Amino acid sequence: MSVVTDEQSPGTASSGFNIRFPEARLNLDQNEEWFEFDVNGRSRTLRIHDYADLYRVPGLYEALVYDKLACKSPQRLAQLFAAVLTDWRIGADDLRVLDLGAGNGIAAEEFRKLGVHHFVGLDLLPEALLAADRDRPALYADYLVTDLCSMSENNLTRLEQHGLNCLLTVAALGFDDIPPEAFGTAFNSIARKGWLGMTIKENFLESDDESGFARLIKGMIDQQIIEIQAHQRYCHRLSITGERLCYMTVVARKTRDIPASLLDQVAHRQVTQVNGKTVELTAMLLGG
User: Measured between alpha carbons, how far is residue 149 from residues 152, 157, 271 in Å?
Assistant: First the structure.
């Protein structure tokens, strides 16, 4: 199996894991990227999106995604959110955050630096909860391991008890991990006049997107379910060949819940292009 050396690959040293990537000619999609690493005296191979396996190895997730591939999404969202809170003269300590796709808590940790004190984590993977407890103990007031598409009444009650007024989701949307209907359930669990902060790959906000998020976000804007406060295009991380993977970070104010009719429309509407062209999120947000 052909792999490139550290000198040929993105990033810096990776906490002793000796992370190696396949040669560039394989031309892998983002959710197909894989790597080799050494742990406990043997070599292993994983996909970058094999999150459960990544979380089982202490330090591997940060070494790969943040050290080696230079991920900046948590910081970029926190910076943009902080600027919006300043404009609104709202203290970060007023936020009670639902961290959707929480993983091991690295995004919530950035918001704790802003002064947020109350976090509820939510993830599909039990390994994420174990990693959060291991890597960032006491960060979350509560942490739910659940599928938002089939939430139990008990878990819905648990969310309600926290009086949540902010939804954060960092690089977790659009790859079948969190579908639009799951996002809708999370969004509807926060208070009216609450806040939304998210990062999402720009491809998932173009008119030929098949994930449904382009239609959902546009519907939320058109129906005035959210009021966009700030948005910015940025480099989420590097690919394994060193290419920039561009995302959008968005901060918005919630005005009301997403109606079931919009989620149903998103789930069943066929994807079409507009005049044979894709529409970038920037144009969408500005009404283009």
Answer: 10, 15, 22
Mean pLDDT (the chain) is: 87
Q: What is the CATH number of domain 73-285?
A: 3.40.50.150
Give the pLDDT band of residue 17 (cuts 50, 70, 90).
very high
Report, as an integer, the average pLDDT of 139-150.
95
3 state SS of 219: helix
Give kind and range of the element (H or E) at residue 237: strand 226-238
Percent of the chain surpassing pLDDT 70: 86
The domain limits of the chain are 3-68, 73-285
The reported pLDDT for the residue numbered 284 is: 52
> CA 148 to CA 192: how far, in whole Å?
19
Which residue pairs, CB below 8 angstroms and at least 24 apart, start in 122-125?
A: 122/98, 122/146, 122/148, 122/186, 124/177, 124/178, 125/51, 125/52, 125/55
Mean pLDDT (whole number) for 234-255: 94
- Mean pLDDT of the region 206-212: 75
pLDDT in tens, 21-34: 987 667 788 888 99
What is the rounded average pLDDT of the residues 91-108?
97
Alpha-carbon distance 135 to 61, whole Å?
11
